[in-house]
Amino acid sequence: MARTAAMLLTLCLTAAALLLGQAVPAFAATSLNADGSSWAGPAIDQWRNDVNPMGIKINFSPSGSAAGRNQWAIGQNDFTASDVPFRTQPDTGVGAGGHEGGSGNVENPVYGYSYVPITAGGTAFMYNLTVAGKQVRDLRLSPKTIVEIFTRKITNWNDPRITADYGKALPSIPMIPIVRSDGSGATAQFTRWMQHTFQAEWEEYCRSINNVSCGDYTEFFPRTAQTKALNGSDVVANYIMGSAGEGTIGYDEYAFAKGSNWPVVKVLNPAGYYTLPTASNVAVALTAAKIRGVDDSTSPSDPNFLQQNLDGVYVNNDPRSYPVSSYSYLIVPRKDAALPPPPRFNDDKGSALSRFISYVLCAGQGKADELGYSPIPRNLVRGGILQTQHIPGNASTVDPNTLANCPNPTFTGEELTVLKNAPQPSPCDAKGAPLDCKVENGKPVTGGTTSGGSGTTGGAAAGGSGSGGAATGGAGAAGGAATGGSGSTGGATGGAATTSGAGGTGKATTTKTPGSTGTGTTGGAATTGGAGSTGGTGGDAGTGGAAADPNAPAADDPNAAVDGTDDQAAEQVVDPQTGQVVARGRGSGTATEVTADVVEVAGRPEDWTLSTLTALELLAVVVVPPLLGRRLLRRRSQTGGRS
Questions:
Q1: Strands (E), 83-235
Q2: What's the pTM?
Q3: 54 in a domain, yes or no?
Q4: Are residues 284 and 225 in the same domain?
Q5: How many helices (H) and strands (E) does the chain have?
Q6: Do 168 and 263 fall within a single domain?
Q7: Cα 85 from Cα 68, distance rounded (Å)
Q8: What are phi and psi of 144, to 5 degrees?
């Protein structure tokens, strides 16, 4: 019996080892070290966790773009993340004192590198403004007004230029711009936009502080005594949202606002519509981005080779585009450049890095929206995949010419699905539309709800905004409120509506669930566009539900674009290689946000077998030792104590 038990244990252990061996990644585990962009930090953190099952371990520190490039320059990184390229001329925005301390000087990397697009997003303008005890959540401003705010020509919230954009006067409250104190990619993207759209105004401001031009862009915002400077994207966001942030406005990555259900400014675009930095609006804008040397004839010897050219983005006249859109880079080793790759880098690391990039630019972009970013569109994906060919040890399986095996949510083959599916703006978002706007026969008219503290941007519940709760007669929840349930303070009562899908994506199915005062409904996604009290009470994500975009228009919003069609069932796009759902669209004629499910990289069909063998192994471990013990005791007693 003891022999049988021992054999059983051996067989179980052998079988488990063999089957577990099948679950080991095809590539040996490899670690990569990186620093850089805090702007891209939340996305990189998600993606590095996604690729762990592939045997790729990435240690990333969101220390800021400038710090990341410095770590690369001294050979301490395998790759780095930066919102801007290496500095080929002095950054004059830092001022003379900064240069003396070593900041803003020309950067001379000694290792060969390529720039790879990784995260796209909009520079969002978070603000903290309360009127009569209610948070303002529907602020809209023109680009010129934004420039005048950050160049200190506008210093109070009741300025007539703000009134003209917003549609009504705000109280006399001092305005405090929040800028970055450190070298920041967010600052570089924002100042480049100002330089290329309102050059005279921006140059005048720079020269008044530094006595010189700020150049094409600066990572160091020229500050005055009337601005407050803080270090790090997260610190800026937290300060604006805090009690000390009343009256402030700052620039930051949209991910920080979206993750906290915090309002941002709707910015007037060249087509004459106020738009938000939603995933689809940014993706639409970036279809006009160019990569030097990929989309033009820039030579590899040119200092600007592979850098972004966003001039077309700033003037994109698609009604959906968000004008302050950009993307950040990975700086990765290049094997065939004039300079050698970093000595610490080898083919094993190159294999891991190229596979990581392929995942990020393809399936990984399906998570961009939920993280507060925009998926990288096809033109930039192709440019990035082309650069993986030059990484030492490249093991990418994505064909840069066809991208056929790249499940990115912005395209299918050659078709730019983002341009087909991205929702059109509401007529109420057109320049000149009244603030208390509703849509009748496709036209904006006066008579809708005002939102100076009610639900998130996109329109409060039809029939009037409820102070601290939903309007009687039906809440304006994203995806369609349940009919017949009246809203009460802070939450739904007697069958309030929740959405089982994210707001702004067609018409989500509606579920009636009992609510309780002061909380959202359990299990539902956050409502978007419905009336709620200050801070989103009564419109927060329910327990177990994913938070919807706090600024996206609701599907049943009376202010939403009217196309004359009903919402249709979602159409799934399936990756032909994996059988996984990689994107969801809508039926023809119905607009939707770009969304996608990420291809699973860890699951295996034999997981149930592993579980069974593990149970047998544990059983054997528990049962066999007592049996062996009894057997030995009997032998000892039969032999007079001899074993």
A1: 113-127, 130-131, 134-135, 140-141, 176-180, 228-230
A2: 0.67
A3: yes
A4: yes
A5: 16, 23
A6: yes
A7: 11
A8: -60, -40
